[in-house]
Automatic annotation (TrEMBL), chain A:
Keyword Membrane set for record: yes
Protein name: NADH-quinone oxidoreductase subunit L
GO BP terms: ATP synthesis coupled electron transport; electron transport coupled proton transport
Residue ranges of every copy of the NADH:quinone oxidoreductase/Mrp antiporter transmembrane domain listed in the record: 137-428
GO cellular component terms, semicolon-separated: endomembrane system; membrane
Keyword Transmembrane: yes
Residue stretches making up the NADH-Ubiquinone oxidoreductase (complex I) chain 5 N-terminal domain: 71-121
Pfam families recorded: Proton_antipo_M (PF00361), Proton_antipo_N (PF00662)
Organism: Eiseniibacteriota bacterium
Automatic annotation (TrEMBL), chain B:
GO molecular function list: NADH dehydrogenase (quinone) (non-electrogenic) activity; NADH dehydrogenase (ubiquinone) activity; quinone binding
Organism the protein comes from: Eiseniibacteriota bacterium
Catalytic activity, reaction form: a quinone + NADH + 5 H(+)(in) = a quinol + NAD(+) + 4 H(+)(out)
Keyword Calcium: no
One Pfam family this sequence matches: Proton_antipo_M
Membrane topology: Multi-pass membrane protein
Subunit-level organization: NDH-1 is composed of 14 different subunits. Subunits NuoA, H, J, K, L, M, N constitute the membrane sector of the complex.
Keyword list, A-Z: Cell membrane, Membrane, NAD, Quinone, Translocase, Transmembrane, Transmembrane helix, Transport, Ubiquinone
Protein name: NADH-quinone oxidoreductase subunit N
Family label: Belongs to the complex I subunit 2 family.
EC numbers for this chain: 7.1.1.-
Domain NADH:quinone oxidoreductase/Mrp antiporter transmembrane: 128-423
Biological role: NDH-1 shuttles electrons from NADH, via FMN and iron-sulfur (Fe-S) centers, to quinones in the respiratory chain. The immediate electron acceptor for the enzyme in this species is believed to be ubiquinone. Couples the redox reaction to proton translocation (for every two electrons transferred, four hydrogen ions are translocated across the cytoplasmic membrane), and thus conserves the redox energy in a proton gradient.
């Protein structure tokens, strides 16, 4: 066979879902674990094979389209289940299956004692299927299938422990926020179809420059709507508040869905649609500004959170902001590069945090940790690598990708965005080392109970940590700056992003580039030093700083009261409207009916009267009023 | 297909559905006199055979085009499409009723006779080319439904629902009839084709007789499809009726009302589009919004689905507003898909509860997903389909309707429609959440399994998914039907 069997990659996890449903109750925990991990592992193998095949092709032909099935074709309305493998989807596919596989293995240990073990892997495999459909789709319609699918799984997994009301609440919130985003996505998609007549990427991107004038309102509106979808899925301003709450889900879910894969779907979508965004400079500018704002905003909130997973959640929001920032300045390669390295170190951070939580018998509060370095050597070592990586210390992965984003922003003339990014980098280093020090260094603040049960995690959890640590350490080397003809990652991505605006921007002089690198390393070092002073050397300093910056600290601690604001502005009014409508139309009438039943005891005549004058009359009255309104309306015209 | 290939002239085959359904209904009424027990399957079997025969008869001449009875009744693509749809709805409803009526002690032959009569009325509505025939079909369908809604005679709720539906239905019929009279006064004919011809000769956009007449016609049909503000009977009637009847009427009566609207829209009203677009748009917006927003807080699933069916009428209205052949085929496609998923959802409700008890509150569904996996998956599929989530048929139907509306330039309408469908997922998923993420508070709901009912639900699930991935088969059919209808 000539084509690399793309359809089998998403089909494998789906088959595991089917088998789990059919015979899962007979497999037992071991069997379920093998089935779930095996399917994803095999999918990874197939993905590697396909990507190798792709790499073997000459650079200009590195696009494989595989039409698995024609969904519908009626006139000009056509859609098919077709998969597309190009350098961009290849990277996504490898990250999703690779990191996904590691997290599956980790989950076997993490969820070992959960009574809903089988249900967990069912949802997790279903998620893998949806996510792979999303990244491999060759048209918007199929991408939307995956888009909705991952949203659904995310919702199910956030509320996995539904006995906790907070988990159910968090699931609901994620759902509502994502629906707002989806609204933008569907509308953007429909508008593109109506104006350009196709939803298939290559055709749409080929037609777009002929249909839309660069900078025209139509394409700007369509791309902004798509970006609204991206802000929902990728937790950007204004739709970011669901992600921190999503931490109610099991920790492997936070690592897989809410750090490494699903939340990056928005970035992927923007990168995938770069030919459209390049036609709408205003939209691109919006992406850059929203990304930069989110990167800084979320980083400041991360400074004061005490829940270990919430710190990581705000950090994810902030890092996603960096990716959008990169896309916004036209450096799509840098955005995807950061997406990849972030998947490594953030998955590692979450899994490490999970290992800590596991070891401490479900303690998540940083104020009740400390001094764990000696007790959990593997967890500590791998976490340290990830923390250094996200802080941007060379030569770890995060350094290369973050530095590339910042230098691209600078090179494209967005010095404001660059400055925000630099400050964000210093804050990132600060809050990540705050987390590291509070958890692993200093005196132990553990409760007696937790101290007693303290234990390092089983090998099935440690091995994924080590692999991810290795990736976080060396994964950035494919993107070393200042190489002749661009670095390895850039050369790989070139067929996709050829001619994209920022990519073609004049290269910086080595001198400027070195200065920028020095500045970003200095920012990271400053953040680390600050955390070191504040939390390790002078334990009193933190309290004094809190006192000094009281207003700021309060604002940050309460996450700028954004949740309360949304509640007052959106949630409450909608709830009241529905309540109102219901009460007005129904309760009056239904209650009347119930009372009517009671009245039968008083006499049938009363009931009949109530019938005729009470409800049916009301209904008929509204009916007639409706007719009259339309008549008058027609008469006026 | 010329000549007389099948023993009988084509006209007879074309009328086969009408003949079979009337014959079946009358045979059932006669059968009532022969003794039979409360557990008898006789009536259900006869209905099933009748409906299959009706469908088969039309299938034989599916490609023929005929005007019958001096142009009062036409046999064309639209008629064929809807006849199949109504027979399918009838068959699924009979299967759902099979055990339900025995369980709730309303297993009477009249039940099935009325069901067949009502189906007959729907078929006549779809095939009518004359306003008089429209009225005839509508009344036949409605009168049978009024009785069916009140079929649980010992239930006060059922009686009340029936009476309300009847009174308001009579009220709406008055409007409809008055509208027909005015149209006749304006154009001198009740035949849709002749009326269109008159219109093209001398446009009478300014003629108040015509404008008011057309308005009242739309109001009368709008009542049947429960468009806002003519919808207020819907929740009460749906809630009070036996659940199997709710399933039947929520699919059939709505599709029949829309069949007539599609016909009127393609002919007479098509000529005065510019006048009607704002009015129908406003009705569509109201219908979608009121339906969805009110459904949000319902705790009774029957009532929630009633409001949901109002909202879905709004989506179909969007297709009608878009107009033309594209709009009509989008409406046909949507109605077929809607009927299926709605029948399925109500069908599952018919299986819940023991004896005459009704377990149709959201809390009654708690934990059902794990205790009855098959049922849980089926309900989830229907809820996802109703919410328009891929890869179900509900998604394709919405995409197609909104796509057609966009092409017709109805951008604000589409925005409101998409917003509505986004809101609606919230209450549909509440059901799924209850099934999988809540524990039953009181005694868990008993599921009264029965082979026919389970079969019907299975068929609905299969088709909802099949049409989701194989949408073009149905879409082709809808488009060809509309083309053949002109």
């Amino acid at each position: 066979m000539n084509f690399p069997l793309l359809w089998i990659i998403p089909a494998l996890p789906l088959a595991a879902v089917g088998l789990n449903l059919l015979i899962g109750d007979r497999l037992g925990k071991r069997g379920t674990a093998w089935l779930a991990c095996g399917a994803v592992g095999l999918a990874f193998a197939f993905a590697v094979r396909a990507v190798l095949r792709l790499a073997g092709l000459p650079e200009a032909d590195r696009t494989i389209v595989e039409n698995a099935y024609t969904w519908m074709r009626v006139g000009d309305f056509s859609a098919s289940v077709a998969f597309l493998l190009d350098p961009l989807s290849a990277v996504m596919c490898l990250v999703v299956t690779g990191v996904g596989f590691l997290i599956h293995v980790y989950s076997v240990g993490y969820m070992a004692h959960d009574p809903s073990f089988r249900r967990f892997f069912l949802y997790l495999n279903l998620f893998m299927f949806a996510m792979l459909t999303l990244v491999l789709a060759d048209n918007f319609l199929l991408m939307f299938v995956g888009w909705e699918g991952v949203g659904l799984c995310s919702y199910l997994l956030i509320g996995f422990w539904y006995e906790r009301p907070s988990a159910a609440e968090a699931g609901k919130k994620a759902f509502v926020m994502n629906r707002i985003g989806d609204f933008g996505f569907i509308l953007g998609m429909l508008l593109l179809f109506a104006w350009a007549g196709s939803l298939q990427y290559d055709r749409l991107f080929a037609i777009a420059p002929h249909v839309f004038v660069k900078g025209a309102a139509a394409i700007t509106i369509a791309t902004l709507l798509l970006f609204l979808g991206a802000t929902g899925k990728s937790a950007q301003i204004p739709l970011y508040t669901w992600l921190p709450d999503a931490m109610e889900g099991p920790t492997p879910v936070s690592a897989l869905i809410h750090a490494a894969t699903m939340v990056t779907a928005g970035v992927y979508m923007v990168a995938r649609c770069h030919p459209l965004f390049l036609l709408a400079p205003a939209s691109l500018e919006t992406v850059a500004v929203v990304g930069a704002a989110t990167a800084l905003f979320a980083a400041t909130i991360g400074l004061a959170q005490n829940d270990i997973k919430r710190v990581l959640a705000y950090s994810t929001v902030s890092q996603l902001g960096y990716m959008f920032m990169a896309c916004g300045v036209g450096a799509f390669t840098a955005g995807i590069f950061h997406l990849m390295t972030h998947a490594f170190f953030k998955a590692l951070l979450f899994l490490g945090a999970g290992s800590v939580i596991h070891a401490l018998s479900d303690e998540q509060d940083l104020r009740r940790m400390g001094g764990l370095a000696g007790k959990l050597p593997w967890t500590h070592g791998t976490m340290l690598v990830a923390t250094l990586a996200i802080a941007g210390i060379p030569p770890l992965a995060g350094f290369f990708s973050k530095d590339e984003i910042l230098s691209r922003a600078f090179a494209s003339g967005h010095s404001g965005v660059w400055l925000v990014g630099l400050v964000g980098a210093a804050l990132t280093a600060f809050y990540m080392f705050r987390l590291y020090i509070l958890a692993f260094r200093g005196p132990s603040r553990l409760s007696h109970e937790a101290e007693h049960h303290l234990h390092e995690s089983p090998p099935s959890m440690i091995i994924p940590l080590v692999v991810l640590a290795a990736l976080s350490a060396v994964g950035g080397l494919v993107g070393q700056p200042m190489q002749e003809g661009g670095h390895l990652f850039e050369r790989w991505m070139r067929p996709v992003f050829e001619g994209a605006g920022g990519e073609a921007a004049a290269p910086l002089s080595p001198r400027t580039e070195w200065t920028l690198i020095a500045l970003s390393v200095a920012a990271a070092a400053l953040g680390i030093y600050g955390a070191y002073r504040t939390y390790l050397v002078e334990p009193g300093l933190a309290a004094r700083l809190r006192e000094r910056l009281r207003a700021f600290h309060q604002a940050v601690l309460h996450k700028y009261w954004i949740d309360e604001l949304y509640d007052a502005l959106v949630v409450a009014p909608v709830y009241h409207l529905s309540q109102r409508l219901w009460r007005f139309w129904d309760e009056r009438i239904v209650d009347g009916m119930v009372n009517g039943v009671a009245y039968t005891f008083e006499g049938v005549s009363a009931l009949l009267r109530l019938f005729q004058t009470g409800f049916v009359g009301t209904y008929a009255l509204f009916f007639t009023l409706g007719v009259l309104v339309i008549l008058i309306e027609l008469g006026r015209r | 297909m010329s000549g007389v290939p099948f023993l009988l002239p084509v006209d007879w085959w074309a009328l086969g559905a009408v003949i079979a359904l009337s014959g079946g209904a009358m045979a059932l009424l006669l059968l009532e006199f022969l003794p039979h027990g409360p557990e008898s399957n006789r009536a259900a079997l006869v209905s099933l055979v009748t409906l299959l025969a009706a469908g088969a008869s039309v299938f034989v001449v599916r490609d023929s085009r005929r005007a019958l009875f001096d142009g009062m009744f036409v046999h064309d693509g639209i008629t064929v499409f809807f006849t199949f749809l109504f027979c399918a709805i009838g068959i699924l409803s009979v299967l759902l009723s099979w055990d339900y009526v025995k369980r709730t002690r309303i297993n009477r032959t009249e039940y099935y006779a009325l069901l067949l009569s009502s189906t007959l009325g729907m078929v006549i509505m779809a095939g009518s080319n004359d306003l008089i025939t429209v009225f005839l079909g509508l009344e036949l369908m409605s009168l049978a439904l009024y009785v069916l809604v009140g079929f649980r005679r010992s239930h006060l709720e059922s009686n009340e629902a029936s009476l309300k539906y009847f009174l308001l239905g009579a009220f709406a019929s008055g409007f409809l009839l008055y509208g027909i009279a005015l149209l006749y006064g304006a154009t001198g004919t009740t035949n849709l084709q002749k009326m269109t011809a008159v219109m093209s000769d001398s446009p009478m956009l300014e003629n108040p007789l015509f404008v008011v007449g057309a308005l009242l016609l739309v109001v009368g049909l709008g009542f049947k499809v429960s468009a806002v503000p003519f919808h207020m009977w819907t929740p009460d009637a749906y809630e009070g009726a036996p659940t199997s009847v709710t399933a039947f009427m929520s699919a059939g009566a709505k599709a029949a009302g829309f069949a007539a609207l599609v016909r009127v829209g393609l002919s007479t009203l098509g000529a005065v589009r510019t006048d009607w677009v704002p009015v129908l748009s406003a009705i569509a917006i109201l219908t979608m919004t009121v339906g969805n927003v009110t459904a949000l807080l319902q705790n009774n699933v029957k009532r929630m689905l009633a409001y949901s069916s109002i909202a879905h009428a709004g989506y179909v209205l969007v297709a009608i507003v878009a107009g033309g052949r594209d709009g009509a085929s989008a409406a046909l496609f949507y109605l077929a898909v809607y009927s299926l998923m709605n029948l399925g959802a109500f069908g599952i409700l018919t299986l819940l509860g023991r004896g005459t008890e009704e377990r149709v509150l959201v809390s009654d569904l708690a934990g059902l997903g794990f205790r009855h996996p098959g049922l849980g998956i089926a309900m989830t599929v229907f809820m996802l389909a109703l919410g328009g989530i891929p890869p179900t048929a509900g998604f394709m139907a919405k995409v197609y309707v909104f796509g057609v509306a966009l092409k017709a330039g109805l951008v604000p309408l589409v925005i409101i429609g998409v917003l509505n469908s986004v809101v609606s997922v919230f209450y549909y998923l509440r059901i799924t959440v209850a099934m999988y993420m809540e524990e039953p508070q009181a005694e868990p709901t008993h599921v009264s399994w029965a082979v026919p009912g389970a079969l019907a639900v299975l068929a609905a699930v299969a088709l909802t998914l099949w049409w989701g991935v194989q949408a073009h088969a149905l879409l082709d059919q809808a488009q060809r039907s509309v083309l053949g209808g002109m």
